[in-house]
Queue: 2 jobs
Job 1
Amino acid sequence: MTSPISSIMSSFPTSGVGADMSVGTTTSTAATPGAGTDFASVLATSLDGLQATQSKADGLALQAASGDLKDVHDYMIASNEASLATQMVVTIKNKAVDAFNEIMRMPV
Amino acid sequence: MAVFDTLGISASGLLAHRKWLDAVSDNISNINTATSTDKSAFKERYIEAQAVDYGSGKGGVRVATAQFGSGEGRVVYEPKNPLADKDGYVRYPDIDLGDQMAQLIMAQRGYQANLSVIDRATKSYQAALQLGKG
C-alpha cells in the first residue's frame, strides 16, 4: 500500500531545510541522515549573521556617541538592518518550535 | 546580510548624494572667494558617479572621482581690494549660483528618494516576516 501523501511529498525539493523531513515509503530507500543541511546548522549560520549585523550597528552607535560618525544614514540603516535580521531569525525559530510542539502533541 | 541587499544599495546612493551635497555647499561657500590674478581662482567641484556593475553581485553607485572646473575664473576690476594687482583686477571663481541651486535641489531630491526606498524596503521586509507570525 502506498502512502496517500507520497505523491505530494515527492514533489517537494529534497535539498535545503526540508531534506530530513522527507517521508520514506516502504519501497523507496530511507533518506540518509545528515545528507542535507539540518535545521540546527541553518539556525547557527543565521545567528552568526545576526551577531555580525548587530555588532556592526553597535560599532556605529559608539561612533555616533563619540562624534566620529561620518554619515548619519549609515547608523540608521545598520540599526534598521539589525532589527530586521533579529525579527527574521526569531520568526524562523518560533516557527521551528511550533512545528516541534505540533509533532509532540500528535496522538500516537 | 544578503537578504537585505536593498538597504546596502540604497545606502550607496545616499552616500553619493551626500558627497554631491558636500560639493555643492563647497562651491556655494566659495562663490565670493577672490584671489589675486597671478593665482588660480577657486575651482568648481563636480562629483563623478559611477554604477557598481549589478552583474558583479553588488548593486549601487559609487563616487569615482571629484572633478574640478576651470581655475581661470573671471577677472573683475576692484581697485580697492587688497588682493588687486597693479591694474586693479582680482580673480573670482566662475560659478553660476543658479546652476548650483539646481544641483542642490537634484542632490536633495535624490537623497530623499533613496531614503524612501529604504523606508519602503523595510516595510516590505516586515510585511513578509508577518507571514511567519500567523
Job 2
Amino acid sequence: MSAQPSFEGPAPVVTTVPAEDQRLAAYHARVDEVLAWRASRVDLNDIPGTMDMASIAILLTLGRDIDACNERVLQMMAEPGTGPFWMFPAVCVAFTGRDLLSPEARASIREAWRTTRQLRGDTENHWVMYYASLYLMSELYPNEPAETWYTGRSSEENLAEAREWLIHWMDTTTTVGQGEFNTTHYIGEYAIPMLFMASWAKDPVMKQRGRMILDWMFAELATVTLNGVLRGPNARSDEGSVIERWNALASYFSWLLFGNTPSPAGYGGWGLYFAPVAKNYVLPEVIHRIAVERDGDYVQRDRARTRRYWRYSDELSPPVYKTNYLRRDYAVGSTQGIVNDVIQAHVWDVTWREEDPRGKHPTMFSLHPHSSGRMMQAQFSTYPEPMPVSVPFEGKPSYNSPDKILGASPYEKVFQDLDTVIALYDIAPGEHFPHINGFFSKDLVNVTEDKSGWIFAQGGQAYLAYRPLAPYHWIPYLHFASGWAKERQDLGGRVLTSPHLKNGTIVQAASVAEFESFAAFQAAINALPLEFTLEPVPAVKFTTLRGKQVAFTYGETPVVAGVPVDYAQWKLFEGPYLNAEVGGRKLTITHGRLQRVLDFNTLTIKDRVIE
Amino acid sequence: MKNFRRLLPMLGLLTAVATATPAYDFYICANINRNYVIGSKIVTTNGIFQRTDAGAWRHFGYNDTSISALAFDPRDRNVIYTATLNGLWRSLDGGKNWRISNGWDMTEGRDVAVDPNAPDHVYLALPDGIAVSTDRAETLVRRENGLPERGKFTQAIKVDRTRAGRVFAGCEVGIFLTEDGAQNWRQVFATKETVNDLQQSPHDPQLWVAATQSAGALISRDGGLKWVRLAGVPTERALYNITFDVTNPARLAIGSWAHGVLTTEDGGATWTSRNAGLPENPRVWRVGVDPEGRLYASVFQETLFHSDDFGRTWQPNDLVGSLVNYFVTLPKAAN
Amino acid sequence: MKKFLALLLLATVAVAQPSYEAPMPGPPPDTRPDTLRRAYLERVNETLDWYLEAIDPAKPLTREQALVKLVRREDADLASQRILELLAEPQSGDMFWMFPWTAIAFAGRDQLSPEARAAIRDAWRTYFPMRGDTENHWVMYYSSLFLMTELYPGEPGETWFNGKSSAENHAEARDFLLHWMDIATTIGQGEFNATHYIGEYAIPMLYLATWSEDPAMRQRGRMLLDLLMAELADNTLHGVLRGPNARTDDNSVIQRWHALATYFSWTMYGHIPPPPHYGGWGIYFAIAAAHYDPPPLFYRIATDREYDREQHDHKRSRRRWRYSDVEMMPVYKTGYIRRDYAVGSYQGGLSDPIQAHVWDVTWAVPDPRGVHNTIFSTHPLSSSRVLQMYFTEYPDWMIDLLASQGKPSYGVPDKILSCSPYEQVFQDLDTIIALYDIPPGIVHQRINGFFSKDLLDVTEAKSGWIFARGGNTYLAYRPLAPYAWEDLLGYRQLPRTGGSGYVWERFRPEGEVDRILVSPHPQNGTIVQAASADEFASFAAFQAAINALPLAFTLQPTPAVKFTTLRGKQVEFTYGAAPVLDGKPVGYTSWKLFEGPHLNAELGARKITISHGRQHRVLDFNTVTTTDYVTP
C-alpha cells in the first residue's frame, strides 16, 4: 500500500497561518497528497480491481490515464449502482470527465441515468446527495425528454424538483438547524454535494447557495472541534468514532481545511470525492482562525432539530438544544437529552485534548442503552420487530447490545453548565435494557473510586470527576472494529454498568493547570455541595466547581442559581464565533477583526475586516 | 388482494376446470436483497414478479428493492402503479417505462389503490398522510381533511369496490373513512398504534377486516362503519397483514412476526397457529392466498412458503431470502 | 520608462508563446466555476512555463526565471545562488526594482538560503530607490515598502535605505495606500484605463492581497484588484482596451490590442491572445495569480456583448503643481460598447500632459494582432508650460528630455498621442464631436486625424463626409476644415550614443501605412458617427443616411456644431460652452463615479457595485467589506 503521509506522519502542530499564500499552498499540498495517494494505488494491469469512481475522478483531475478511465467508466456503467451513494460519485466522474472522457464513456454515464432507478433514501444526507446529483446531471444534460431519465421526467422537471428541495433544505437548515448536526461521518455527505454545487452549478443562485452552505458547515465544524477533533454531541456517529473521536470523516475535513489534526486512514474514504474538486473552494480565513486560534474558553449554544418523527410524537422534528464549552485542554458538549436519531445519536461527553489523537479514546460519558422497535417505528416507516434485529447487520452492529455505548434514549435528560454535566435517567419498567453504561477509556490514568462516591481520573491535561448516582459494577469494554464486524475486540477500557432504572451521572472537568495536584482537585470536588435523590424521580442539587448552584430534576426544567433555563429563548447559534437567530437564515461568523456574514435571505456573502 | 370484484364471476369456473390452465394472473412484490442498506450494491433482482403458467416467477419492471405495494388499472393491465421508497411510480406500457408521480413533498409510499369505479383515481398511503390522483397519477395532491395533524401515518389504503370514492385508510391512530374521494375523512375506529392492513371480503362487500399493531384483528360487518375485535387473535404483538381466501368465505389468514401464521376456517370465530413446517419461530412478513386457495407465507429473509392445505403443511416455494410485500391476483390478461 | 528596459531584455528570449502565437481562442467548453478557474490557472501556468522553458543552462538565470523557480519550488539552491549574484551587481530601477524584489523575498522566504535572504534584506538598506513622481510609482513604492517592513518588522532605521524604522516605514506606507484607495474610490483614479500602467497597480494590489499580514490590507488589496479587473472587463471590446486612456503610447494607441492591459484580459478571461512576452511585467502578476480568483461575474462582463451598453464614469487628471485653478481636473468619461465597435471619450483637456488619449472609435476584428482598428483626431500639443503644470522642471529642456525618456513623439507635429487644452469633446452613444480652438503661437497649429491602414473603402464624399469600413463597422468622419493627407511614420530606436536615454529616428513602416488627416487650421473640428454594418442594406445606404443627417456648423468666432445624430438626437456643441442634447445642457457635475449597467458608484461614496445579470459584488471601502449576492 502506498504511504499516506498525513495519516502516518507525526501529528501536525496547530498554528495559525496568517499568510494567504502559505495557507493556500498548504491546503493545495494536502489536496495533492490525497490525489497522489489514490492515483498511486491504480494498477493499469488490474483496472477493475484498483479503479473505482473516486480514482477515475482523481485521474481525470490529474489529466492522467484517460484511456484507462474510459475503459473503467464503460465497465462500471454496465452495472450502475442505485441510490445517492452511487449518484454523487457518478456526478463527480461525469463533471471531472465532461471534456476528457470519450464520447462513449460519457454516453455510458448518461445512459445509466436512464436505465437504473435511483432510490432517494430516507435520511437528510441521502436527499442532499440525491437532489444535488440529480440537479447537476439535469443541468449538464438540459432539454432532454422524460424517457431519457430514470424518473420518467424531463431534464427541466428533474431540475425544478431538485432545485426546489435543495432550497427547502437550506431554508430549514438556516432557520431551525440541521437534523443531522455535527455528524462524525455524514458531514462528507453534505460537504461533497455542496462543493459540487459550488463548483459545477451553472445557475449562479445555486452556485452561491452551495458555496454558502459549505462555509456554514465548515464554520460549525471549526467551532465544535478541539484541535481538529469533532467531539460533543453528534446527531449520528458510530461505535468507533464515539470513543476514538479523531477517527472520523470529520477529521479528514479538519485536516484538509485547517491542517490541525492527522488525516484518517484512506483519507476518510469518501474524502476522496472532495479532493478532486477541492481546489475550487478556498476556506475563508475567519473560519481557519476559529479552528486554529481560539481566543480562550468559550461557550457556544446552538439549536438543531431531530430526525423526522413519522409517528408516536407530538412534533415532526422537536428542537435540539446543544451546549458546547471548549477550553485548551478539554471540551464538554451535550444536548438536553433527546432521541434526535434513533440509532446513532451521541448525547454528551467530556473529551480531552491529546497531542496525537490517533488510537486514543479521549472521552467520557454515560448513556441508557436504548433499543426499541416502537422508537424505530417513530422514525422509520417500518414494523416494530424487524429493525432491531436487522440493523446490527446493516452497519450499526451494537444497536441491540446491552453494553453498547452509542445511542440516545427517551429516558435520559441532560443539563450542562460550562464543564459540569448532569445526566438523569428514569427508565420505564419493561424496557429492553434496564441499566445505564458509563464509558471509561483505556487512556484514563489514576482512576480512583473514592469513598465519597466520586470516581476521579485524569485524561491528558484534564482532571475528571464522575459521580454515579446508583450502585454499579465494571465490565470490559468490547469494541466493534467496524460497522460490519462480527467479532468484538478488547481494546482496553471499561464500562461502568449500573442496573437501576432510576439513575444518574454527574461529571465535572477541570484543567490540570488549575490545581496544584490531583489530590487538590479531588479535595475540591469532594467539598462541593451535592444532594440527590432517585425516588420518585432522579433529582440533583449541586454546586459546580465554577460556583454555580444547579438544581435539576428529571422531567423538569433545570434551574441555575435560582433561574430556570429558558430553552425557548435559545438562538440558532450563539457564541463568540457563530451567531444566528432562529428563523433568520443569516449566520454571522466572527473571529477577531474578521467577519463573514452568510445571508440566505438575499443570497449574500459579506466579508468584512474591522480596521 | 385487489380487484376481486372483477374476479368473482370466474370463481365458479375455477372449481369446474381446476386442472385447466389457471385463468388468472398472479403477481407479487418481493425484495430479495437481505440487509439492504442505502448505499450498498443491489446484487439480486427485486420488484414485481408474475407467476408464469409453469409456476416460476418472472420479474419485470425496474430492479427496485423498495416496492411496498402494487396496483393495476382495471381497464388496462399495462397501466401499473407501485408504491415505493421514492413515492409513487406509474407505467403506461406494462412496466417498460416508468414515471415518478410525486415530487419531494411525498416519500416512502406505503400502499396504493385504484378505485375500480373511477379508475383514473389513485390513492397513495404515506407516512405523513394521504395523496390522491384523479388523472391516473399524472399529478398527485394531498387530501387529508379530517385526518389528525399528528397521527396520520398511513400504512394501508383500500377502496370499497361497491362505490366510487369510498375509501378506508389504516393510520397510526385508527381506521379512517372517506365517502367523497378523500375530500373529507372521519375516524371510524380508534387505535393507539398503527393499523397495518385492511381487506374487503371478496365474498361479501359489507365485510371488512383489519390487522393492527396493538389492537389485534378487527372485523366490520356493516361496510366498515362499526369495527369489533376478533376474539382469539392476540393483541400484544403486531399483526402485519390479513387476507381472505377467495375460494372459501370461512377462511382467513393473518401474518405476524411474533405469531407466525394464524388461520381461521370458521369465519374468524376460532384461530389456529399454523407454523408447523415453517422455520422455527417464523417471522412471517406477509400471508396471501391465490384464487386456487393456495396459502402463501413470506418468512422474513428466509423464503416464500406455500401450503395447499391452508397451513397444515408447508413447502418452500422459490425466492430464497425474499420479503414479499404484496400479493395481487387479476383475471388473466387477454394475449 | 525603465520598464521597457525589462521588456527589451525579455525580447531576447526566443521560446514559443502558445497563446500569443496560436489562433484566436474560442470560448471555454462551459462557463461553470471550475472550468473558468482551471482555464485561468492554465493561462497563469503558461506564463510561468514560458520563463522556465527559456532557461539556457549555459546562461545565468534572469531575475524573473529565478523568481519562477521559487514559485514552482524548484532549485531553491540555484535560485539562491543567482540572487546573490544579481544583488552583488549595482542595483537600479527604483520602484520597478522594489516590487520584483518584494516578490522574490516573499516567494523565497521559506526556501531561499539564509545568505540569499540576508542579501535581499540588505539590499533594502544599501540601495536607494526613488519614489518617483506618478501615481503608479507611488503605489508600487509604498506597497513594496509596506510588505517588506511587515516581513522584517521591528528593525531599526539604519537597516532601511531611508533611515526610517520598520514601524515608521510601515505606518507611512499604510497611510499612503489608504489615502490613495480613498481617492480612487471617491473621485477616481488619475491614471485611469492605462494601456500599460494597469499592471503597475494590479501587481502591487495582488501582492498586498496575497502577502500582507494585516487582514484589512489584504482585503483592501483584493478589493482594489477587483475594481481594476472589473473596470478592465467593462472597458474592453472583446478583450481590447479602447477608448480614452490617461496614459498610453504611440503603438498601443493605434494597435489597441498591443498593451499590457491585454495580458490581463487574457489572463483573467482568456478570450484574446496575450501580447508578446506576456506583456513583460505580466510575469510579476502570474507568480502570485493563483491567489486571486477572478469572479465569474467579471468574466461575464468581459465576454457578454449581446447588448449595447453605455457607461458614464468620473475620473481625475494627474496632479497639477502650477498654472491651474484646480489641483486635479475632473475627467468625465463616456463609453458606449456594442458587439461590432465601441466609442469612448472624455470631455477633452489635459489629463496627463504627455501620454493621454482622449477619444476614439474602435472596431472589433476577428484577430486584433497587428491591426490598427481605431479612428480619432487630436491636437498635437507640445508645450513646456503644460509640462511644467505637472512636473517640477524648468521649461527649456523638457521636450528634448522626453524623447530620451522613451516618449519620442511628444514634440513632433504629426503625433497622434496627445491631449490638449484646446480640444473639447462631446459624445452621445456612437457620435463624437471634437472641437478645437488653438490660440496663435501654440505648437502645433494643426489637428491630426488618424486613418488606419486597416480601413476599407475610404471614400471622400462631396458632402464633406469621409466614409470608411472597419471590420463590421461603418464609419463617417467629418472634418470641419480643409485638410491634406500624410503617411504616418514610425519611430525606430537607435543605438545609444552615451548616457541612458533613448535615441530615435522616424521610418516608413513596410507595407500598408497608416495615414493622418492633417488640417492646419486653429479653429477646427471633427465629427465621427459609427454604425454597425448590420443596420444597413449596404455601405451606400449608410452613406445616404449620414448625408441626410441635419448638420450645421461654424468655425468663427469659435467652432460650433448643430447636428442630428444617426440615433435621432439633436446635439448643439459650441467650443467653450456646455454641450446641449435635445435642448438640455449636459450637467457633468451630476455624474457619478460609475454609472452604467455593470459598474455603479456614487461620487465620494467609497462603495462600488459591480453587476451582471443576477450576480453582484459590492466593494465597500468604508467598512472594508466585500459583498457577493445573487438576485434570485
